């Protein structure tokens, strides 16, 4: 009986800790879902990430895409609303000595300017992608690449669809 109550108490504590994170997904764009290494590599490939490119990861989570882009020579910026993930990501960036090429900004992805972007990654919910669409259409320069992982951007025609995305869907590649 005491063991069952202890397990129940632990579950309630865990739920209380996780609830704000689970709810933040729909409020801010998407819940945090880590991306597998092989998917990160495919996003880098489809985004043509390399030296001299300006890369943005919207809703950058733990910063793994920003770090991967910087390691490939890009100037990489992540936009993340969660202050703990921003701190953690920037700590990794400093530890890897990538601060001159990579950073994570704490902010709302709808409030940033993407006019200098060569590549933008969206690992967001479809409804968030659609809300971002007018902003990206207005700000992105011709030829910029948008990589939407798992969730498409409605009414945009992808130049490529890689079925080997995440468990939630393929990787959609768009060129503006």
Question: Would you kindly provide a written description of the structure presented here, covering whatever features stand out?
Answer:
The protein has 176 residues and is an alpha/beta fold. The chain has one domain (33-175): 3-Layer(aba) Sandwich (Rossmann fold), CATH 3.40.50. 41% of the residues lie in helices and 22% in strands. It is built from 5 helices and 7 strands. It has helices at residues 2-28, 37-46, 64-71, 83-95, 126-139; strands at residues 54-58, 75-80, 102-106, 119-122, 145-149, 160-166, 169-175. The chain has a 7-stranded mixed sheet, covered by helices on one side. Strand 2 (75-80), helix 4 (83-95) and strand 3 (102-106) form a beta-alpha-beta unit. Helix 2 packs across helix 3 (64-71). The chain is globular. Residues 21-26 have low confidence and may be disordered.
SSE layout:
Elements: H1 2-28, H2 37-46, E1 54-58, H3 64-71, E2 75-80, H4 83-95, E3 102-106, E4 119-122, H5 126-139, E5 145-149, E6 160-166, E7 169-175
Parallel strand pairs: 1-2, 1-4, 2-3, 4-5
Antiparallel strand pairs: 5-7, 6-7
Helix pairs in contact: 2-3
Short description:
This protein is of the alpha/beta class. It is built from five helices and seven strands, in the order ααβαβαββαβββ.
Question: How widely separated are the two ends?
Answer: 61 Å
* Low-pLDDT ranges: 21-26
Rg measurement, Å: 17 Å
Q: Assign the CATH topology.
A: Rossmann fold
Helix content: 40-55%
Q: What number of structural domains do the residues give?
A: 1
CATH structural class:
Alpha Beta
Mean pLDDT: 89
Shape type: globular
Q: Please write the string of helix (H) and strand (E) elements.
A: HHEHEHEEHEEE
Identify the strand order in the major beta sheet: 3-2-1-4-5-7-6
Named at the architecture level, the CATH assignment is 3-Layer(aba) Sandwich
* Major sheet characteristics: 7 strands, mixed
> How many distinct helices?
5
Number of strand segments: 7
Beta strand %: 15-25%
Q: Helix- and strand-based class?
A: alpha/beta
- Provide the CATH superfamily: Vaccinia Virus protein VP39
């Amino acid at each position: 009986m005491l063991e069952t109550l202890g397990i129940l108490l632990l579950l309630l504590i865990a739920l209380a800790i996780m609830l704000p994170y689970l709810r933040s997904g729909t409020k801010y764009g998407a819940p945090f879902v880590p991306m597998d290494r092989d998917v990160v590599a495919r996003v880098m490939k489809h985004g043509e990430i390399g030296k001299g490119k300006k890369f943005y990861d919207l809703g950058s989570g733990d910063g793994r895409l920003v770090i991967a882009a910087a390691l490939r020579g890009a100037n990489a910026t992540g936009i993340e609303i969660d202050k703990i993930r921003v701190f953690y990501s920037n700590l990794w960036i400093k530890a890897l000595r990538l601060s001159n090429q990579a950073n994570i900004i704490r902010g709302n992805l709808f409030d940033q300017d993407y006019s200098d972007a060569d590549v933008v990654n969206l690992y967001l919910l479809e409804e968030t992608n659609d809300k971002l669409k007018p902003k990206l259409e207005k700000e992105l320069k011709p030829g910029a690449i948008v990589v939407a992982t798992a969730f498409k951007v409605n009414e945009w025609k992808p130049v490529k669809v890689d079925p080997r995305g995440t468990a939630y869907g393929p990787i959609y590649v768009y060129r503006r």
